[in-house]
Amino acid sequence: MTFLIALVEALLFAVLCRGAIKKHPGVFYAISIAMVAFLFYYRVANLYQVFPEWTYTYLIAPFWRGAFATALFVIVMFLGAIEKKHDVTKQLMQIRGELAIIGSLITLAHSIAYGIYYVPAVFYTPQELSLRDVVALIFTVPLFVVMILLMVTSFRTVRRKMKARTWKKIQRLSYAWFALLYIYIMGLMVPSAIELLSEGSGGELYYQVSYVFSVVLYTVVFGTYAVLRVRKHQRDKQKRVARLHLATA
């Protein structure tokens, strides 16, 4: 359910704040960094014991668990795979880079929140890590490195200093990164869903439904993107061929 909440929040954020993000992207980067600091403090100070439960469900969990950042990345990727017929879509297209940067900065909060436990465990108590934890950590390394590379090259000042061809080659890494992100998410969620659904697990019905629903939703969203992206690639290829025929006619 967290991902569905994050998708709604991310769409509202992108649509309602698109003008402000375009004019003052630095303000939103600063807010993202401040949020990273707050979530880190939230984790260290155990503030979940202080705030009402709904604040965790609707505000903290989407950011802490990386769902809001993932939702922003979903918006960024879909914008590159759909037709830009509507004004809102065209306006969002103008801030794709900024949304990607904001998503990357918020992901740092997710990385810090989980990294303060898992990274030390690798060196001091590796026996406490499950196979799933180890696989997740292995996937995290390329995901994190490529994300930072994509984030840095998404800044307009950096992009202007790069050759267009080089910039495009780097940005194409986003396709492989997005696919790897889905595999990473499924590697975490599917075993948990199976465990909750197994006989005698004692898992509450809400969590059973939530995990299964999330697995299905992630699959539908990422699968839909894959279909749209392939279709756009085919249409673009047909347009290039048609232009070539007209040029040589």
Task: Give a verbal description of the structure.
It is built from twelve helices and no strands. The protein is globular and about 70 Å long. The protein has one domain. Helices cover 83% and strands 0% of the residues. The termini are far apart. With 249 residues, it is mainly α. The protein has helices at residues 2-16, 18-23, 25-44, 53-64, 67-79, 87-93, 96-124, 131-152, 156-161, 164-171, 173-197, 205-248.
Key attributes of the depicted protein:
249 residues; mainly alpha; 0% strand
Count of runs of 4 or more consecutive helical residues: 12
Coarse morphology: globular
- Work out the count of structural domains: 1
What is Rg? 20 Å
Mean pLDDT: 87
- Report how far the terminal alpha carbons are from each other: 55 Å
Work out the strand percent: under 5%
User: Quick one: how many beta strands?
Assistant: 0
Low-confidence stretches: none
Give me the secondary-structure category: mainly alpha
Largest sheet: none
Helices and strands, in order, run as: HHHHHHHHHHHH
Helix content: over 70%
